[in-house]
Amino acid sequence: MLHTMSTTVEPGPERSADEVNEEIRALWRRSGGTLSGEQREEYQRLVLEWAAAVPHPAEAA
Asked: What mean pLDDT is predicted for residues 6-10?
């Protein structure tokens, strides 16, 4: 019997923008101010996560 694997990514627990921002700061501290290629990829992922977590004010009607 064949089974297909789901390619849907299950969302992890959502973190606040403050939590993600602290991880970004820690990454910069660990790197000494210069990101390697792997660290740059992590930074980009974190920035996207941070942007999604930032509260957005309701648009004016």
From this structure: 50
